[in-house]
Write a structure and sequence with these properties.
It contains twelve helices and 20 strands. It is of the alpha+beta class and 401 residues long. The radius of gyration is 26 Å and the shape is globular.
Length: 401
């Protein structure tokens, strides 16, 4: 049996929010503090406060630390963690988190990772948040960490280097390194911080919706302030995954949301533009179905299929571009076939293809462009592109003996 912690980052994640969620779910704060006291760092204390965020009960972690004005390097922090004689997984997870930070900061500031100077993330409170989160995972006996897509805000954030774009460059780089799915919200707040992103980059083994598990507990870690549009919390769900759960995951489809609106008062040009806008907003697919509404009026159903993480954005586009007074939706499952991108040449022009088992599909825009430039019929370009891919990838005949 594998114990899994799944972080639901619908309002982003920060180090104190991750720690607060784990305390809220049942990690004993006194035991966390006992492990933290092994660090050769003094002048700090930790308290947990029960709060409400958007009507949801959550735990807010307060780290009271003296401002020691020390700008620590990655090597300095790694030495502190090594010296602390922490349990193996706590040490390894904490070091991995600071390693991710050092690599990204080194790339951003063009210096070796070991020489990176940590400012905000090198302060005592950040060290407590990161090592405390790793300690809490150990106390809960977490074997594997997974996460939902990660939400970020907009605007600017203040740092030791002055004002920076939000999400901060370090956050973007960390999430990119982890290949984390992300979604931006039109909220002027730092929803995901470098410490939160670093914890995810170092610890998460899989990204996506709630994995199949037998849920045993759930908790919420609170951010420092209330948000108008959503609860400012990070959720953690703890459960056990088994062979049965793994089989369920293999057999179950990928969750998607189908959104629809019926319209009878828009032009064909408006509907065509709406389809393009839905795809640009992140929909997997969008289409139009002719229908007949009440009193025999001809109309259309505009439909979009989207990942749950971007369903809100797609719904807004569907409403604004069609002028519909309402949108309906339902959650479905899909089983997309594995596919890989490729490229061939037709008459010296590049044409992209998608390759799946038993099929080669030519990208229509590329084929159309090649047809216009060569004067060949579109169907001929498609046929030549498919044949070129098969010639390039078919197995060569065995040499005669």
């Amino acid at each position: 049996m594998t114990t899994v912690a799944w972080f639901h980052c619908f309002a982003g994640i920060a180090g104190d929010m991750a720690l607060g969620a784990l305390v809220d779910v049942g990690a004993d704060l006194a035991e966390i503090v006992a492990l933290l006291k092994r660090l050769p760092v003094t002048g700090w204390s930790v308290e947990a406060e029960p709060v409400l965020r958007g009507g949801i009960a959550a735990t807010r972690i307060h780290v009271d630390a003296e401002d020691d004005a020390i700008v620590r390097t990655h090597s300095h922090i790694a030495a502190l963690i090594e010296e602390a004689r922490l349990p193996d997984r706590v040490r390894e997870r904490a070091l991995a988190t600071f390693d991710q930070l050092a690599i990204v900061e080194g790339q951003l500031h063009r210096r070796p990772a070991a020489q990176v100077h940590f400012h905000e993330v090198g302060g005592i409170d950040a060290i407590v948040d990161i090592v405390g989160t790793c300690a809490a995972l150990e106390l809960l006996d977490i074997d594997e960490v997974q996460s939902s897509p990660v939400t970020t805000g907009r605007g600017m954030v203040r740092s030791a280097h002055g004002l920076l774009p939000n999400p901060a460059p370090a956050v973007v780089a960390l999430l990119a390194r982890a290949k984390a799915p992300t979604v931006g919200r039109d909220i002027s707040a730092e929803l995901t911080t470098p410490t939160g992103a670093a914890l995810l980059a170092a610890l998460v083994t899989d990204w996506g919706p709630l994995p199949p598990m037998a849920i045993t507990a759930t908790g919420f870690g609170a951010g420092s302030r209330d948000l108008a549009d959503m609860p400012n919390t990070t959720q953690v769900v703890i459960g056990t995954a088994s062979a049965t759960a793994a089989e369920t995951l293999e057999n179950s489809g990928q969750p998607v949301v189908q959104l629809e609106a019926n319209v009878d008062d828009v032009t064909g040009e408006t509907i065509a533009y709406a389809i393009s806008a839905l795809l640009e907003a992140g929909a997997h697919d969008a289409w139009v179905t002719p229908i007949v509404m009440k009193k025999g009026r001809p109309a259309y159903t505009v439909s979009a299929l989207a990942d749950p993480a971007v369903a809100v954005d797609v719904r807004r586009v569907l409403t604004s571009e069609t002028g519909s007074l309402g949108v309906r939706g339902q959650t479905l499952e899909r089983w997309p076939a594995a596919r890989a991108p490729g490229e061939v040449e037709v008459e010296g022009l590049p044409v992209r293809v998608k390759v799946s088992p038993g099929r080669v599909k030519v990208e229509h825009d590329d084929a159309r462009r090649a047809a216009r430039r060569t004067g060949l019929p579109l169907r001929e370009v498609v046929s030549r592109a498919e044949a070129a891919w098969r010639r390039a990838h078919e197995d060569p005949p065995d040499d005669a003996s």
